[in-house]
Amino acid sequence: MRKLTMVVLILGLMAFIGLGVNYFVSHYGNINYQWKTNLEDYREYRLLGNSTLNGYVKANGEISVYILTREDFERLKNGEPFKGYKAWEHVKAVELDNVKIPEGDYVLVVKNDDKGMQWISVKLVSKK
Fold first, then answer.
1. Is 14 within a domain?
2. What residues form DSSP beta bridges with 31?
3. Number of domains composing the chain
4. Closest to 63 in 3D by CA, of 87, 47, 79
5. Mean of the per-residue pLDDT values for the chain?
6. CA triplet 56, 66, 31: central angle to 5 degrees?
7. Contact at 8 Å (CB) between 15 and 57?
8. pTM of this prediction?
């Protein structure tokens, strides 16, 4: 009887922890990206529409960071004029503090301005 009670208590505790983690992730944030990586010309990160973006982008050389629609990203890659929702040009680091992302298909684009750069580090958290 005592072993059965312990098993039921442990299963109940595991279910409670699982529900708590699920609630936290679905209501308070989704960690989208976090890594250090080599950077070619561009790196793109899909953003959650109608959300608030927090995080950072850091590099060991100059980068430009843009929040763009997919269409404007294609214009940027093709060397055409484009409109950015937000832009930070020729920087080594960007802190994203409660940046409002409109509804739609937006991406965060990191452009390598300093071709000798070795790495970038990105961490983004989107909250509805």
1. no
2. 125
3. 1
4. 87
5. 81
6. 40
7. no
8. 0.68
